Amino acid sequence: MADLAVGQVVADREYRITRENLVRYAGASGDFNPIHWNDRVARAVGLPGVLAHGMLTMALAGRLLTDWAGDPGAVVEYSVRFSRPVVVPDDDHGVAVQVSATVTEVRDDGLVAVDLAVKVDDQKVLTQARALARPPKTDGGS
């Protein structure tokens, strides 16, 4: 196992979500709720605009973990709470979602607990985002 320490940031990445991503996610998930593609409907129900699917935001944080671990099967537990919607503007740039993973525990069984910070404009969009994973294997000369 790599030498990991509590407090160590093991992964950090910015993801961009555009309206095109929302259309693709809707097709893959079957979630065609108009608040995810129609400004008029979103505003009519009191939202500030079109929102990213919560599960898409959660998936991006999960992607950071699986990319770090090098294996989707390495993530053995993963949970989040949705705290703030991600508003996606109708432009070519979309919205930036910043995700980072910080080690909170290195366990004797080889698993690592991490907390995920998931933010848009320095505001948390997911809270209590935690995971338990097998860390990536290092060559270490063996």
Description:
This protein has 142 residues and is of the alpha+beta class. The chain contains 3 helices and 5 strands; from the N terminus they run βαααββββ. The chain has a 5-stranded antiparallel sheet with strand order 1-3-4-5-2.
Structure summary:
The chain contains three helices and five strands; from the N terminus they run E-H-H-H-E-E-E-E.
Instruction: Note the gap between the termini.
Output: 12 Å
Briefly note the structural class of the backbone: alpha+beta
- Low-confidence sequence ranges: none
Largest beta sheet, briefly?
5 strands, antiparallel
Count the E strands. 5
CATH architecture of the domain at 9-17 and 52-133: Roll
- Predict the CATH topology of the domain at 9-17 and 52-133: Thiol Ester Dehydrase, Chain A
The CATH homologous superfamily name of the domain at 9-17 and 52-133 equals: Hotdog Thioesterase
Radius of gyration: 17 Å
The level of helicity is 10-25%
The CATH first-level class of the domain at 9-17 and 52-133 comes to Alpha Beta
In terms of DSSP E residues, the strand content is 25-35%
Helix count from the secondary structure assignment: 3
Q: Assign an overall shape.
A: elongated
* Strand and helix order: EHHHEEEE
Pfam families: MaoC_dehydratas (PF01575)
Family: Belongs to the enoyl-CoA hydratase/isomerase family.
Domain MaoC-like: 8-113
Protein name: MaoC family dehydratase
